[in-house]
Sequence to fold (1729 residues):
Amino acid sequence: MTRESRDTEITKAAGAGATAAVRGRKKRKNKENKTRTVRANTLLNDHPNPHYANNKIKTTKYTLLSFLPKNLFEQFHRFANVYFVFIALLNFVPVVNAFQPELALAPVVFILSVTAIKDLWEDYRRHRSDTEINHMDCLVYSSMERRYVEKYWKEVQVGDFIRLRCNEILPADVLLLSSSDPDRLCHIETATLDGETNLKQRQVVRSFLDLDCEFDPFKYHSVIECEKPNNDLNRFRGYIVHRSGRRDVLCKENLLLRGCTIRNTEEAVGIVIYAGHETKAMLNNNGPRYKRSKLERQMNVDVFWCVIILLVICSFAAVGHGLWMFQYGDKRPVFDVLSPQGTNLSPIMSAIYLFLTLIIVFQVLIPISLFVSIEIVKICQVYLIHQDMDLYDEETDSHLQCRALNITEDLGQMQYIFSDKTGTLTENKMVFRRCTVAGVEYSHDANARRLAMYQEMDSEEEECMSHGGTLPRRESVTSHQSARVVLRSQSTKSHRRTGSRAEAKRASILSKHTAFSSPMEKDITPDPQLLYKVNECSSQMDFMRFHSQPMSQLSSDLSDIIDFFIALTICNTVVVSSPNQPRHKVRMRFELKSPVKTIEDFIKRFTPSRLTSGSNSSSSSSLITNRSSNKGCSSLLSSPSAESTLTKLHEEQSSHLEPTFSPVPPCYDGKASWNLEEGELRYEAESPDEAALVYAARAYKCSLVGRLPDQVTVELPHLGKLSFELLHTLGFDSTRKRMSVVVKHPLTDQITVYTKGADSVIMDLLKPLDTGKRQKKIICRTQNYLNLYAADGLRTLCIAKKILSKEEYACWLQCHLEAETAIQGREELLFQSALRLETNLQLLGATGVEDRLQDGVPETVAALRRAGLQIWVLTGDKQETAVNIAYACKLLDPEEEMLTLNADSQVSHVSLVCKSLGLSKKKQINSSSSLSSHNTSPFLVHRLGLVIDGRTLAYALDKTLEDKFLEVARSCRSVLCCRSTPLQKSMVVKLVRNKLKVMTLAIGDGANDVSMIQVADVGVGISGQEGMQAVMASDFALPRFRYLQKLLLVHGHWCYSRLANMILYFFYKNAMFVALLFWYQFYCGFSGSAMIDQWYLIFFNLMFSAFPQLVTGTLDKDVSAETLQRLPQLYVNGQNSEEYKPYMFWMNMIDAFYQSLVCFFIPYFAYADSDVDLFTWGTPITTLALFTILLHLGIETKTWTWMNWLSIIFSITLFFTVALCYNASCPTCFSPSNPYWTMQRQLQEPLFYLLCLITPVTALLPRYMPFRVLTRIILQHRGLRGVRASATGVQNVDIYNSQRAKFSEVKLKLGFFCLCSSFTLNNIGTNSHRGGVGTHTHTHAHTDSVHIRARAWRLE
Amino acid sequence: MMASSYNAKEEDGHHSGSASHGGAAVVKSKKPDNTAFKQQRLPAWQPILTAGTVLPAFFVIGLIFIPIGIGLYVTSNNIKEFEIDYTGVDMNSACYSCAKNFSWNSTTSCLCTVDFTLEQPFESNVFMYYGLSNFYQNHRRYVKSRDDSQLNGDMSALTNPSKECEPYRMSEGLPIAPCGAIANSLFNDTLKLYYLEANGTRNEIPLVKKGIAWWTDKHVKFRNPGGNANLTAVFQGNLTATSKPVNWRNPVYELDQDPENNGFINEDFIVWMRTAALPTFRKLYRIIQKKSSTMPTLPSGKYVLDITYNYPVLSFDGRKRMILSTISWMGGKNPFLGIAYITVGSICFFLGVVLLIIHHKYDTRSTGADIPN
Fold:
């Protein structure tokens, strides 16, 4: 079974934003509903296709003129910016202004301009690269000069003829009309579009196939009708209408997409169908994704609370002011100044004005710098994650990429992981292990031994071999070029995306060697018994052919074997290339023949008088000339190989000539010379399974040597090269789960269908059982072996064949051709057609392919498990294989019970679910009663694994049943969904995410995981062998699965705890500062006066207290990386949002409230009834607040590096320097505070220093107070006992010390056993005492630096 | 005070440039640098708050704070201060009639005399303050209502004061000098202090009126337009004609006879212009300098305070006081800081003791419980 096809997935990969990317497209009323008509530009004098976008691209957002308004408009989409601008503008209203209006604008302008400059720079870079792209050259046919002339890309129009040369990049979506290739093929590399590195073949439009001379644009008079531009890379439908009125169908095989590179084709000519922004590549560009993290959502709630607090205190003060004024009545005191107009304001009016004034004064309560700071911190965090050496993979020279910059902290809060299996848990290096043919098992013991050897081999070594071998590199120019275009065409909007350059580079590196071709995959040790049989069989066949005996005389066992290998070899889409001429397909053409595409063609070919009818090439009705038959006769005469020695079996066969012997005898090359070449043939497969099978067949000397669209050449022992006429390829799709090829067998001349697919499907499609005893036996045995393979964790595929009679084939062909030519619902019709063909199959055998686990997968899974993460595996593999892989990677435990849900119908599913629900509940009760009376820990109780297959999953995802399914799934420790389609994968993720309200992470490597990755809160792509689609869609791209452990457990935890603490600190800081001003309102008649100079007020957040928190937010580590990895339980912290609970916001508010009271009232009483003036009094208060805030941060900082020290010293120095300069600069400038020489005088006052000493200490006393010590008493009273760890063992392990954890004493809910086992595992706490209930590791005051506190769930 | 553990990890000997594969492709390795910063392994100090580290901190704070507090308290107590309220709210008080009849519109001054007795002599220099209560000099609009440029002697600001001065900017078509509400509400009571000798003769005590303002205010911030000479000409000139603030009796150039203390650089004016932080405040009025080392500046005995009652405060329920005070290195009399230090120190000490007991108790218990294996 191959990987699920990419076809449907790319559509989804192209996000919704794609349409937005289309710029400047003229909206045109299109009455021809949904079609586009393209005429050649040479056709008419005036431009025939004027309304289509030209090829000029413009991805910039702004022009010089529009920059300012547009950028501002965009920035004001942020609510915070609007708020701050509103406040700043409010300052310009005289009655309410609080600050100097210009000064109040400063912070907003600063922040807006920083963003604007950043945007401008990005836009300029986009502009530059646009210009570069637009000015690339290509050859366009000029009707004036009647030749191809060089033109810039941007000048290309729809309807232009373009000549493309090898290694050129396509400037637009082009319909291929002519190719220099004799097969009228054109090879393209689509790595830039989908990351797949194998070459794709594109065909010249059928009606132009047989142009022998060069294509002349002037003779082209057809009209193309096709779909409107869309972003589906794998769909192109349309037809070409010739002058004669003939219609020919166009399909995606005829279309060359912009951004792809022409390979192996000297020259090609095509007509531009879609240009510029309407090309599929451009339509597929979606900008960076913006996700909002959970923490940010939580933060926004608290910002909202801040707004409420702001409104409340402003209203309170406004009422206070009204009352204050009211008490004076009509006698207006001298200090209550009239309004500038001299009018006397009523208390109510003043209160209303004051309300607005206070909103300005208290604006910092909603922290303007918070949003900026968070972004800065996140960028730093992303940088540090990027730099982590542990996340760097030396093999591929790639490291983790953070593609989404703003959800780093989500990594610390994951609860569910949805993982793909193939390529994610496993290496996706498929290795052929064993097979069964015609009911006989060939165990391939030697092969197993060889694999075991590889297992031991260092992976690095292995990579060296694959790199250092004979694999050549493409010309450097090419890779260079492709790299550049990758950068562009992947996403022209992607410049903001950090990863794009790296991806481009990686893609180009990848393309240098063929995928899926490590020696481990290539070298297969054949089973001697089978090898002997193959030899025997082929020599017999050779003999028979030589003596013109009918092939049917071969024993059915032997013919099955040979058919089996032929199927392995040809039933795929593998392209052969020879490394000497990179990417030049090996030309092994014996006869040129186009695939059967018309009924006439079919009749012509399959009538005995073929040679004669073929000769008159100019048949009346069509443009088609039967070129194939023309040339076919030339190769008719060929001599059998000298090497075809007679074996003893020859005598057994009677020799008589078969009259209808194949008219296409195979050609023999010199075998010796071929053998040399053989070793160097390279197979380019789309999926590793295909490659593995082809390599396996090659080990049996049954090698694929060439593939053309219409024929496959296979070399067989003794028989030499055989060309199979390839009539149809029914490609793999994930619904059918199989692929088929229809070939004409060169030896028997029969039309044979070879089908390869998942055993579950193939078994259903076999001929009814009553057909024959032998077949029955084969099926039975094969099924047994299949189960055996699956139990070994092998991926199984069944191989079957079917022989069609000519009548049957003709009948089917009729329908198939209809389907192919249909414009509406073609996919559906083709699908139906395929279903009709793939029936009544004859089973040949089955293969078992091994997919090795990646390094460190079981350990990672175990660690993530212990971290409280639920891991679900969603795979397209069959159940048994998946289950075995799950066991192998410790996802399932042999000790735990497994619930298997396999239902055939909805009804049975319902009952099954209900039953299992009951079971799981019973289980839960049992387990909980045995372990704990009131369990709070979800991950120790359920010892159940759930396995569900695709069909059942479909029922389970039904609206009515999803709740029940979830209930069952939740009660299980692990869930395994097999045989699931990509859509199902994303539905499962969506279901869990939406219903359980949990944080989900999806990890996968292939195109079939894209939808799942996009749905999850955090999508992780494995930049493995399956192309870049998953990476493109992901938020984080990892080289290996095992890196997930460090990414989540360490970086996720850090990012989360850093940001959570920083956000809380921000709220605290601003609230504390604002509260100082609020208290003052009680002493200034609620007049909105501030004792703090407005400069300090405005720059306090922006400058004085900004840096230390950034450093802490970036570098602080509550627990060291080693400990986090050693004790994955600590991850629970983030899952339960322990660092930032809603109540913590209020706790911080209360703390801020208290601290501001201290900071206000100590100076208040110290200066009460003195001659101190307003701003002289405000200066020490500002200083004290700064000290308190910084010391508070100091207490919150868990690790002090020199950067923390530096930033704090810098902050304090900055404050005093600024204050001294500011107070010395101008005696009259800073009205109204006019703080000339204030700070200088304060520094001479002993009182100032005395205040600076006592206030922060008093303010921080409650925070510094060891809650731990107090809670210890409580814990003691509760009867919790401590576990004493040996001091020597714990010396250097900075295990979690939870008294730092703010007010939440109970940080970790870890099971006692977990902790204990981790201790013993890591050789710490060797004499740790199993005290029972909670764990509380206490170490002695002198020797230990370490304390663990954990209230675990209790056993009693 | 806190346990610290250095977490410096030695740089492991990884070669930062990975060996390129088989000599092919000298693609620059993307391998991150192995630096302490990038790998987040910067040596760090981890303060861990455990009982063992917290307890000493408490004791240290307590031991430092309590002596400071005692020192401050003693210093504050040594300061002599005498305060007398002369608002005249009470029927019996001397200024009752003045207070009752007086308003901003009164043209003549009202005189009243208050007698008081100093129980103890004031030894060192005595500072004489006037104190106002319930006077919101920190009101937002009041604070803003001034023009610093004008007060700095700027000619253009003199004739065209800042908008902030509204509605005390122009009067009868002329710019007000000094403009604004602060200046307009200048405290204009005059106080004279007499020592009542035993024989009943009044002995006027010389009050120094210079040196009461900040040096920087007097010499930098406040300047008369066109120098100190001939102020009348400046404030009354043709081009620079100004009007006196509406509440003032005399124009600004008649505040004092002494040209060094007249106009904008009049120190009483400067002191007033420095707006008080809190609604109850005092402002330095005069200084009584110590004359000889043997005689106390103000010997104990009876004193008479002559007040020219010009400043109405009763309308807003204000109070006026006269304060005599000596000062120390830490300013005027204020026992608060001393008490605060003592309190905080004691709390810390007390907490330390309590925690020590708990810690000790717990420690023995846990030792007993946990060591059996």
User: Anything to note?
Assistant: The two ends of chain B are 33 Å apart (CA to CA).
